[in-house]
Recover the amino acids of this structure.
């Protein structure tokens, strides 16, 4: 018996080594440029400290809280655990199944009709004690189970990449909600300043109207326009209060808190940091979690296809058992009462109504589908990088133009105010210049937030990896 078990274990050690499937990223038929077409950014390295660069220490602190408490990230983490457990289960199925047990039985037999005479029916009691140790194993001769296990390993690796993408996505959502709160606060400050400006203008126009100085700006239409601007500005106050409230509650959800709307956010938007290095386009294939996840799905499909091909091959089953049978518990482990058995079986599929062939065709289709999905994800990734790089350039140009326009609008408002006070200007020109100044200031605040949002998009497009200070 020892020889039998040694042979089984030796075969196990030879046939059960498993590695994760090799990368299949090279099977993508895609010609890559030497640099990004939308930018000439530095090609060395990728910024993994982008959360601090964009949001500072407070940004890191709030992202860290989200990573520790967010329910949606816990969902991704549990999927990794489930996929890993499935891979371990597949490994266990390649090992021999070993079982041991001890049984005891007491039986009473009645001998009806025996001519023993005397009082009553004769009977006899029997006690039986057995011990059993069994081993069963289906040697993975062709690598059928190994292919299945490798497919599950690749799937677990895909879930790990999905978890990395979920972490980066959560960090991005947290920072964007945080910046939305800051922009709403800035807009409310601008609205408050505009309210003072409009009310001052309203008093000037009402004074002219009360004095019936029509030629100097005392017409009733001008008064109503000035009153309308004050009312409109009050509506904008309620609008940005609502936006801030929604952003606060959204951030609280991301942090795993109850959305009570009591979170304090940034009072002002931070300045966008310098543009990050973009790296080489080819590096994106080895860095982006969604690409790596799709590649692992493709690799898993390849191993399942191999398993489907190996299903046509015969399988071998080995079973062995040893134990004792005795009528005395004291002898249950003595070899003198030992019994054993050894058996093997060979199974070769011959005809299954075309089930094996149809399953193999389905697996081939699944592999083609996984490759097509990988190619689609790769192209989308390159598009996102190119778009984010170009958007960065466009937003910088827009910011420069808006700052110049705001400077001119402030100058126009100052001149219109002086002219109206001196009686040489009209109210419509003053109100128009003030409205233009306020609108441009509001658009500039929104543009600052858009630049920060796009910077986050760019970092995610380039790979999404990040580190947090301890």
């Amino acid at each position: 018996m020892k020889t039998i078990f040694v042979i089984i274990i030796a075969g196990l050690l030879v046939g059960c080594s498993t590695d994760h499937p090799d990368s299949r990223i090279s099977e993508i038929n895609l010609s890559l440029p030497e640099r990004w077409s939308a930018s000439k950014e530095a090609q060395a390295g990728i910024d993994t400290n982008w959360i601090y660069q964009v949001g500072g220490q407070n940004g890191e602190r709030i992202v860290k809280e989200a990573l520790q408490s967010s329910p949606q990230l816990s969902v991704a983490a549990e999927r990794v655990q489930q996929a890993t457990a499935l891979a371990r289960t597949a490994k266990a199925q390649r090992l021999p199944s070993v079982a041991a047990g001890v049984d005891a039985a007491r039986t009473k037999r009645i001998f009806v009709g025996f001519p023993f005479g005397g009082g009553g029916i004769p009977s006899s009691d029997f006690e039986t004690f057995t011990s059993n140790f069994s081993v069963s194993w289906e040697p993975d001769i062709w690598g059928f189970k190994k292919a299945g296990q490798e497919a599950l390993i690749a799937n677990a690796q895909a879930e790990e990449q999905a978890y990395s993408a979920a972490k980066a996505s959560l960090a991005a959502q947290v920072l964007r909600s945080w910046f939305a709160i800051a922009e709403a606060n800035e807009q409310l400050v601008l609205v408050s300043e505009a309210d003072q400006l409009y009310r001052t203008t309203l008093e000037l126009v009402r004074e002219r109207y009360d004095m019936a100085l029509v030629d100097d700006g005392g017409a009733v239409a001008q008064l109503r326009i000035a009153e309308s601007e004050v009312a409109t500005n009050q509506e904008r106050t309620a609008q940005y209060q609502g936006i801030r409230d929604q952003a606060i509650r959204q951030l609280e959800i991301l942090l795993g808190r109850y959305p009570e709307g009591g979170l304090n956010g940034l009072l002002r938007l931070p300045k966008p940091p310098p543009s990050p290095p973009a790296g080489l386009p080819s590096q994106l294939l080895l860095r982006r979690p969604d690409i790596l996840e799709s590649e692992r799905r493709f690799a898993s499909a390849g191993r399942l296809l191999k398993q489907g091909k190996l299903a046509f091959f015969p399988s071998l089953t080995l079973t062995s058992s040893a134990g004792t049978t005795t009528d005395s518990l004291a002898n249950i482990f003595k070899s003198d009462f030992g019994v054993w058995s050894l058996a093997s079986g060979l199974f070769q599929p011959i005809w299954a109504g075309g089930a094996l062939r149809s399953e193999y065709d389905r697996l081939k289709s699944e592999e083609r589908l996984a490759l097509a999905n990988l190619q689609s994800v790769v192209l989308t990734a390159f598009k996102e990088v190119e778009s984010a790089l170009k958007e960065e350039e466009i937003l910088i140009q827009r910011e420069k133009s808006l700052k110049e326009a705001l400077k001119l609008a402030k100058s126009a408002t100052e001149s219109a105010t002086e002219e109206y006070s001196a009686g040489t200007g009209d109210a419509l020109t003053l109100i128009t210049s003030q409205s233009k100044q306020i609108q441009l200031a509001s658009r500039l605040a929104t543009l600052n937030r858009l630049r920060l949002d796009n910077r986050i998009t760019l970092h995610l497009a380039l790979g999404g990896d990040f580190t947090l200070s301890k």
Observations:
- Strands lie at 97-110, 123-137, 315-326, 338-347.
- The longest strand covers residues 123-137.
- The chain has eight helices and four strands.
